[in-house]
From TrEMBL:
SMART domains: Tryp_SPc. It holds the Pfam family Trypsin. PROSITE patterns: TRYPSIN_DOM (PS50240). One of its GO terms (molecular function) is serine-type endopeptidase activity. This is Peptidase S1 domain-containing protein. It comes from Aphidius gifuensis. GO terms for biological process: proteolysis. Belongs to the peptidase S1 family. CLIP subfamily.
Length: 237
């Protein structure tokens, strides 16, 4: 399971948009609240198991403790999975976005609210935060973990992408790469679908897509700015 390694425990009011996407009551990946009815995640996360159906999915939000059952946590069933129309499981790293429509609206609190879409394009060396519920063992961690990452240049990112997708290179304008400051800190699969967040602008800049086995401190994320029109059209319906 993909997970954050070497991060520190995060308070939920630092990431009130963050949700745990649950498959048959087990944490599968992260997601971000767009509105009280819609959550953004990665298509790869939802397609991890080909038999995933909406009846088996729900989201948990409002707490940094995935085992917490008190008044701050909220469960919401998923009514509909909306994949980006250009997404293909065969080329899973392309257009890797999905939006979950919820059966019931999220009740906003200081611990649980939406995050805005970006209004600035990604720049090299931009610092972003991400978070997730896992650690270096095979078990998910109880408390939300966060790490800071720095956006790489397009040329450096392209070098990583070519090594992974030599036959089907990722369009660089739709993807970006980020790296942790230290090699002992990394994000891996259970954090797929989590947002890459600009704390400076309080916006979601990307969604975690790919982790490299031989470069655990580097991830590829989908550039949300490129997909803003599709996202806005989808959540306005």
């Amino acid at each position: 399971m993909n997970k954050i390694i070497g991060g520190r425990t995060a308070y939920i009011d630092e990431f009130p948009h963050q949700v745990s996407v649950l498959y048959r009551e087990h944490h599968m990946c992260g997601g971000s609240i767009l509105t009280n009815n819609y959550v953004l995640t990665s298509a790869t996360c939802i397609m991890y198991d080909l038999v995933v159906v909406t009846a088996n999915l729900r989201i948990f939000t409002g707490t940094n403790d995935r085992l917490q059952r008190d008044f701050t946590g909220q469960y919401h069933n998923v009514a509909l999975i909306i994949y980006n129309p250009l997404y293909s499981p065969r080329l899973f790293w392309h257009n890797d976005l999905a939006i979950l429509k919820l059966e019931t609206p999220i009740i906003y609190t200081r611990y649980c609210k939406n995050i805005e879409l970006p209004f600035k394009i990604i720049r090299p060396c931009m610092k972003l935060d991400t978070c997730g519920w896992a650690h270096e063992s095979s078990m998910t961690t109880r408390y939300l973990q966060k790490i800071e990452m720095k956006v790489l240049s397009q040329s450096n990112c392209y070098d990583y992408l070519i090594s992974f997708t030599a036959l089907n290179p990722i369009p660089v304008h739709t993807q970006a790469c980020a790296k942790t400051e230290h090699q002992t800190i990394s994000a891996t699969l259970g954090d797929g679908g989590s947002g890459m967040v600009s704390n400076k602008f309080k916006t979601i800049v990307g969604v975690i897509s790919i982790m490299f086995v031989n470069k655990a401190d580097t991830i590829v994320f989908t550039d949300v700015h490129f997909y803003k029109d599709w996202i806005r059209n989808t959540i306005s319906q």
